[in-house]
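Long-time lurker, first post. I've been practising inverse folding by hand and with some scripts of my own, and I keep getting stuck on stretches where the structure tokens seem ambiguous. Below is the full token string for one chain I'm working on. Before anyone asks, I'm not after the true native sequence, just a reasonable design that respects the backbone. If someone could post their per-position residues I'd love to compare against what I wrote down in my notebook.
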């Protein structure tokens, strides 16, 4: 079986697939790739099913040696990748020869870059998924981020020959806007006065330094409630924007708690959930309200684009 040697792990590199949905009722959030569209497209470039485990790198990438070679693709944000010192491009399948080293540095654009390998990263599944859930220390590589000198197993070798598949970046550029998130009203939107609603949609927020895979903490206009009454704890969804007592919104992310007692002013639409994976600390974002019908049509439009045969060329 082929392997990957971790020479340098980067700031936070984890094994991720598309997560483990449906376990919220027992307190386990889905986890999975913070930018699932980048993972899906990277897997398609190397001939994998969409849900095949890959590596998610955050803010700073690592260095990886392939003793037996591999077919890989890098997607997501630009981390200035090189192969044995020679620059390589994103969104293109690449054949790595035995002994070559892939090196990535600090992000030049968004927060996360994905390394997809033909046949995927072989790790034991937890609740049917290979994704790393850092908060609980489960899944992925021993439930943790990669460390120097880790050896990762690649899945059984594919029988198909190498195809230099690629995606033209301009075809998918609209998918990866980091400065705008479209939302629908949250279940407690009416708990906020009109002045807070206007501030939420008209002001620009900054992603706080304490943001992580549990949530994006936002800095900007403070939102007050009409009443100080407390609410009963209830289930919460990925992308929910809750407002604690201090008034600073938090966007709940892939490792979010599954219940919460703070009012939720809005929820990021499904078509924009992947965008949550790319804003960096200090990046600015704005919110735009759309109807539930519009949110549904945007998701359908996005899936049609991703299913288009002409999206990937050889």
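-- Answer (accepted) --
I ran through it position by position. Result:
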């Amino acid at each position: 079986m082929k392997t990957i040697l971790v020479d340098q792990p980067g700031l936070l590199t984890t094994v991720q697939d598309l997560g483990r949905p449906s376990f919220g009722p027992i307190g386990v959030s889905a986890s999975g790739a913070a930018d699932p569209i980048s993972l899906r497209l990277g897997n398609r470039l190397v001939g994998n099913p969409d849900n095949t485990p890959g590596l998610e790198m955050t803010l700073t990438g690592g260095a990886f040696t392939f003793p037996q070679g591999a077919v890989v693709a890098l997607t997501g944000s630009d981390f200035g990748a090189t192969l044995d010192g020679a620059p390589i491009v994103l969104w293109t399948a690449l054949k790595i020869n035995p002994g070559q080293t892939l090196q990535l540095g600090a992000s030049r654009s968004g927060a996360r870059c994905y390394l997809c390998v033909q046949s995927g990263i072989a790790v034991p599944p937890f609740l049917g998924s290979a994704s790393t859930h850092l908060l609980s220390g489960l899944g992925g590589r021993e439930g943790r981020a990669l460390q120097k000198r880790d050896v990762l197993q690649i899945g059984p070798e594919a029988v198909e020959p190498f195809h230099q598949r690629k995606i033209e970046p301009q075809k998918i550029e609209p998918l990866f806007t980091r400065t705008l998130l479209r939302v629908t009203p949250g279940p407690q939107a009416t708990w906020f006065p009109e002045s807070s609603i206007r501030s939420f949609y008209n002001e620009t927020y900054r992603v706080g330094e304490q943001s992580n895979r549990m949530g994006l903490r936002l800095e900007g206009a403070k939102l007050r409630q009409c009443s100080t009454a407390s609410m009963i704890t209830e289930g919460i969804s990925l992308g929910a924007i809750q407002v604690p007592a201090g008034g600073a919104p938090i966007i709940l992310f892939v490792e979010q708690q599954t219940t919460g007692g703070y009012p939720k002013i809005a929820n990021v639409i499904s078509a924009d959930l992947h965008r949550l994976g790319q804003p960096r600390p200090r990046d600015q974002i704005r919110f735009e309200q759309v109807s539930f019908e519009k949110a549904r049509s945007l998701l359908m439009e996005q899936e049609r684009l991703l299913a288009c045969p002409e999206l990937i060329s050889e």
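A couple of notes from the structure itself: The domain at 176-309 is CATH 2.40.100.10 (Cyclophilin). DSSP finds four helices and 21 strands in the chain. Happy to go over any region you disagree with.
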